[in-house]
Amino acid sequence: GSFPSLTTLMALPGMRDTQTVVKWKFLEHKGPVFAPPYEPLPSNVKFYYDGKVMRLSPEAEEVATFFAKMLDHEYTTKDIFRKNFFKDWRKEMTAEEKAKITDLKKCNFSEMNEFFKAQSEARKAMTKEEKQKIKEDNERILQEYGFCIMDNHRERIANFRIEPPGLFRGRGDHPKMGMLKRRIRPEDIIINCSKDSKHPEPPPGTRWKEVRHDNKVTWLVSWTENIQGSIKYIMLNPSSRIKGEKDWQKYETARRLKKCVDRIRNQYREDWKSKEMRIRQRAVALYFIDKLALRAGNEKEEGETADTVGCCSLRVEHIKLYPENDGQEYVVEFDFLGKDSIRYYNKVPVEKRVFKNLQLFMENKEPDDDLFDRLNTSILNKHLQELMDGLTAKVFRTYNASITLQQQLKELTNAEENIPAKILSYNRANRAVAILCNHQRAPPKTFEKSMQNLQTKIDAKREQLSDAKRELKSAKADAKVRKDEKSKKSKKAVQRIEEQLMKLEVQATDREENKQIALGTSKLNYLDPRISVAWCKKWGIPVEKIYNKTQREKFAWAIDMADEDFEF
DNA sequence: GCGTGTACTTAGAATACAATTC
DNA sequence: GAATTGTATTCTAAGTACACGC
């Protein structure tokens, strides 16, 4: 195919991308789809305060329903969530409501909660025709609002629906959890499109906040969210040219790092000896980023978000030093909350020089002092930029993830094995990367049960196999001299069942090993898809076994591009 | 350098949908 | 054909990175 080429629009490696490069020449779209307006509850669904029925104003009622819908969620038991919710809810109340409703504990939302549960049951119980109608409506909205024209191509938009109002669900110990996320109106919306396009119309009787024509950015719509005051964007789907080229560029940068990573490693090892503290800190931090695939660790505003860290923002309290541990020398124990408040726990032996440096960095410091007090991401990235054009801290994550997949695939793939076994090897290679990048998930609620079900199936299959073998034996005995049809057939059956059993066993292993590991994130964001495509071609595995439809669309450029001897 | 604002990528959970089982 | 289970998709929060003004 023709996808993609380095167009004149594309940034060259290392070229500053923001505010520098023209991203498109023509952009036309229909604007966002707004959240449906609030529908007041039927009058038989009651809210009780202090045991007595109370009728709420529509504004207060809407916010109450947000809480009522979440009653079964752990969030609603958390003090901070309740406190933030109640404070914001009161802002929406009338003076009378405010005077009366002074204690969240006295609020009874259970009828509301029941109502929404019943509603979702009713939705499930709809007839085929009703479901079909909804599907068609959605399809029409998708066709109208879900696509834009960018430079002669009709491209899929990722999130063309505006986020509906609700209660903010921060991850981890978020100080703002439970706050009211307000409804977004046309007056909040900035539209970005080209001057010579047909501009999207705001809903009747409303206006946009602004219509601008900035072709140095890729977004179509933006608004400012009220919880953190940050900007939200509507952008294109990962299958679009603009995202695909950027993705490709990302992996090309990582491949350039491959060429000079030895030099960089030698450099930072030298820097461990520097007489300048800032250089030693920089060198030890970079070592962690490289060896452990830690994130850069930007500073964050205290009290605005959950307390999480990355490499540069590590504090003394996040590591422990063991001169000797379980027979290993110079062990560092990491224990901190990273992005999304996912815990990072790891015990790693390090070089003596690193260990000594860490001792030095921690000297005379309090637990909540910065480990690298002379370093931040901006200093680190400036240094990296000097080592390689376009190099930043996150490139190491991409590089180490991709190179690990390639190595692991080489190591684990066994030419003799069948396709399911090879796919298990692929998943194991993928898993090695997910572990490196600390991509965890909560074990699925039904995990134990689903393992049990699988085991039951395996047992049944084993039973079936021994039956089939017995059958084969007796068929052979019957056959006397020449092999007859019956024994041939029995043999086939045994083979078929053996294969099925093997497939089930492989599936069980895979699932067990995956209990707390999330493979999707690395597959989607860190692994050069050309490695996987090449592997599929080399071993005759259909690419559909590795990538589902959406993933194949996102990685169309790689599926097009890579042949079986692609090397990352 | 330092604080602030913007644009974009990366992340796990929630939900919708499809496949399978009973 | 209803219920259950597994997978794909959607959602939106939470990161990284860098420009800009001082």
Notes on the protein architecture:
- The chain is α+β, with helices and mostly antiparallel strands.
- The chain folds into 4 domains: 27-35 and 131-237, DNA Topoisomerase I, domain 2; 47-125, Arc Repressor Mutant, subunit A (Orthogonal Bundle), CATH 1.10.10; 242-391, Alpha-Beta Complex (Topoisomerase I, Chain A, domain 3), CATH 3.90.15.10; 401-561, Topoisomerase I, Chain A, domain 4 (Orthogonal Bundle).
- It has 17 helices and 15 strands.
- It has helices at residues 58-69, 79-92, 95-100, 110-124, 128-145, 241-271, 277-292, 352-362, 377-387, 393-412, 419-436, 447-479, 485-513, 520-525, 529-539, 549-554, 556-561, and strands at 27-28, 47-49, 52-54, 107-108, 147-150, 153-156, 166-167, 180-181, 190-192, 210-212, 221-224, 231-234, 319-325, 328-337, 343-349.
- The longest helix is centred in the last third of the chain and has 33 residues, at 447-479.
- It binds a DNA duplex (22 and 22 nucleotides) through strand 12, helix 6, helix 9, helix 12 and helix 14.
Brief descriptors of the model:
single chain; 568 residues; alpha+beta; DNA Topoisomerase I, domain 2; Arc Repressor Mutant, subunit A; Topoisomerase I, Chain A, domain 3; 4 domains; 4-stranded mixed sheet; 3-stranded antiparallel sheet; 11% strand; disordered N terminus; DNA-binding
